[in-house]
Design goal:
Elements (H helix, E strand, L loop, with lengths): L1 H10 L3 H7 L6 H33 L4 H16 L4 H14 L4 H12 L2 H16 L3 H50 L5 H5 L1 H25 L4
Helix pairs in contact: 1-2, 3-4, 3-8, 4-5, 5-6, 6-7, 7-8, 8-10
């Protein structure tokens, strides 16, 4: 609601348009879904990388795959905390083993739900290793290393873009600050933009260009690894 008030006051200075724009705020949560989903996926991938490291240590110690999966659960609780996203998924793995269902099927279902290529690739490799009797411990070690390197690169990119994102936020505020300054210092200077049809059209075009610039800057800085 506050964002709608700021936009309408800056570009239209109309109470009627402000009330008409309020329903548009209902779409704001949907615009944030993609960003929140990416953050959730990154968090899940970090937790999965930790789980693979623990699983690799148990397999290297001579545990069977099923017993290693069982031993990982309490270790994850200590490492990640009870609010970890992966704990619920790990409980599904354990439940599948209790029901004598193939662990590979539960892992494949999890990989599809996660939407992460790294987890899906691991699921396929895990399935092939189980069927062919491959050295699962070595595969886990390699997979953990690959995911760890990918996360490190993602963190480096995020650190490098931190200054650019700060500059982006400042640039997004500059049009508002300029308009507010002109309205306060010379109220009649922009009056034609708020009182005539041509002025309304001009401000609407400016608003659309501003939103397009915000979208493009966000896409440029949103680098996927």
């Amino acid at each position: 609601m506050l964002a709608a008030a700021v936009f309408v006051f800056t570009f239209y200075r109309s109470r009627t348009l402000f009330l008409a724009s309020l329903p548009l705020m209902l779409f704001y949560p949907f615009l944030q879904c993609g960003r929140l989903a990416r953050r959730r996926q990154q968090r899940l991938l970090r937790e999965f990388q930790e789980a693979l490291g623990v699983l690799h240590s148990f397999l290297s110690a001579g545990y069977s795959v099923e017993n290693a999966f069982r031993r990982v659960r309490p270790e994850l609780w200590q490492l990640l905390g009870e609010d970890a996203l992966l704990l619920g998924e790990w409980d599904i793995f354990l439940k599948a083993m209790e029901l004598n269902q193939p662990l590979e099927n539960a892992l494949r279902d999890f990989s599809l739900r996660s939407g992460l290529d790294d987890i899906q690739n691991f699921s396929e490799v895990f399935l092939l290793a189980r069927r062919s009797g491959g050295e699962l411990s070595r595969i886990l070690g390699n997979t953990t290393g690959i995911i760890r390197e990918k996360l490190m690169v993602a963190e480096e990119v995020l650190t490098m873009n931190a200054d650019k994102r700060y500059e982006q936020k400042i640039m997004n505020l500059i049009p508002f600050l300029l308009i507010w300054y002109m309205n306060l210092s010379s109220p009649d200077f922009f009056s034609v933009l708020y009182s005539t049809l041509a002025g309304r059209i001009c401000m609407t075009l400016c608003l659309l260009l501003y939103l397009l610039a915000c979208y493009l800057s966000e896409r440029i800085l949103d680098i996927e690894v």
